[in-house]
Amino acid sequence: MGRTTSATTKRCTDIVSNPERMTVEIVSLVTDVKGCQPMDLEPLSNVTDPDALENLIRETAAGEFEIGFDYEGGRLSISSDGTIEFDLSVDRST
């Protein structure tokens, strides 16, 4: 068949002022892109420390950062401006 690529970006400026929402926003974005339910996802805590991500946002509110990690077959990126991006690439050639 070939390669299908899907990228979705969600800007969540409320995570800058409310870092506790970040996990909810990540799950929402990934389930939207993958077309699945939250219970179908691997727990986020299996691939990163959600508390550490929240602390990073809280402690660098005046600074800039971008962090990324692999999750659910894609690449998840979080920026200090509140942008959460999930790039999902699926190779269907096998």
From TrEMBL:
Domain named Halobacterial output: residues: 20-86
Superkingdom of the organism of origin: Archaea
InterPro entries in the cross-refs: HalOD1
Protein name: Halobacterial output domain-containing protein
Species, as recorded: Halogeometricum borinquense (strain ATCC 700274 / DSM 11551 / JCM 10706 / KCTC 4070 / PR3)
Organismal lineage: Archaea, Methanobacteriati, Methanobacteriota, Stenosarchaea group, Halobacteria
